[in-house]
Amino acid sequence: xxxxxxxxxxxxxxxxxxxxxxxxxxxxxxxxxxxxxxxxxxxxxxxxxxxxxxxxxxxxxxxxxxxxxxxxxxxxxxxxxxxxxxxxxxxxxxxxxxxxxxxxxxxxxxxxxxxxxxxxxxxxxxxxxxxxxxxxxxxxxxxxxxxxxxxxxxxxxxxxxxxxxxxxxxxxxxxxxxxxxxxxxxxxxxxxxxxxxxxxxxxxxxxxxxxxxxxxxxxxxxxxxxxxxxxxxx
Length: 234
Description:
Elements: H1 3-8, H2 13-22, H3 26-29, H4 32-35, H5 40-51, H6 55-63, E1 67-70, H7 78-81, E2 89-94, E3 102-106, H8 113-126, E4 132-135, H9 141-151, E5 156-159, H10 173-178, E6 183-187, H11 199-210, E7 213-216, H12 224-233
Parallel strand pairs: 3-4, 3-7, 4-5, 5-6
Antiparallel strand pairs: 1-2, 2-6
């Protein structure tokens, strides 16, 4: 589980991904014959990463019931692995059940009554086919989708733009507690990460990458829902 140490010592994600694709494990990567071909500066950082003791980090994850999935993990979702810019690490709380039928639900934070009724009506039919609902835990359509899915005792996957210990928005705190009971919360950001505004557009690619289809319920012309549907088309 040493891949994450490379990031801590300043190695760019694009290079870490290259190493991950080439080597099955961090242990095989740090063999002498592999390190010799690296640039001196990169080799020094890799050696420091290999020596770094991160037991406290993993103990904290375990105490918080958070599991770390690396790009090379068997449980890492294959659909997500194949997108253009896959997250190297996923922090997961709850039951890992990505499944083969994931539908992303996106839309405005300022939904109308029509948007709510339409969203629930479509979800009612979709959930009869044993699909997982993937959304971003924002206010509005995201919240409607998660709440309706939980009401039907179906599986929710919530993709967030902060560490799993940083609830955002605060109004969604009850959903953060309920979703892991019959689904999972996912973030590419480690515990302690604040919900910075640029995290949320990047979160959209994960929702799209996990989903076989996107349900856009209601969105303004430049809304995040339309951005997400464009990710899905790519």
